[in-house]
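Repro:
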Amino acid sequence: MRTSVHLVALSCPAVHRSRPVLLLVLPLALSACTKTSPPESPKPPEQASEKAEPKQPPFSPPADGRVTPQQIEDYLRALEKARETGATATPASLATLSSPAGEVFGGTPDVAAARELGLRIEEFLWVRERVLEALAMEAAARLDRVAIADVERTLGDLKARLVNPADDGSRKVIENQITIFTEELGRLKREAARPLAPAIRANIETVAPFREKALALQESVIRLPQQEPASTASEQNP
């Protein structure tokens, strides 16, 4: 109806004289027609992001450098899942994971398992480093204690032999050995007495209850490369 009126008006000579006015009115009329149906209301933000996966906050290592039992349990869960896949990693591939991001080097089984479990990769790598560090320091301390005990036992045997040596030559040899082992014992004790950082000491105590399980899982996931037997000269030069 409105369209026919406009066409008639445009065909009228009198309207031609007022054509500039119509050019202004027609766009307004057309725009009024388009506004008869209200626009769709935008979706609330919560509906728009309903299907989006929750984004985890970035991980920042704690200032005290201490790992928690829950973090260790999550780390072991990832190792268990990696063991279930049957895939293994090598020490060389693990060494490439020193990057805090870790995403570029996500092909190792433990990192892939951590991602499947929804763990933050940066946190996983940090926890793994703390656990390995604590286990290594604890093993080093244990080796120091064994070495100190061995040297002390050897010194005891040498001092017992020095009581009744076979001759003067034997006495001098024993005294020289006592001097050498005494110096070695002092060195070992000085190294064993070096204080550890408070964070490392705390992490060793936190990791201690998980030690056996962590070592077993790491052994099943991390495999040392097999060395091929050295070929003999006859094999190299037939």
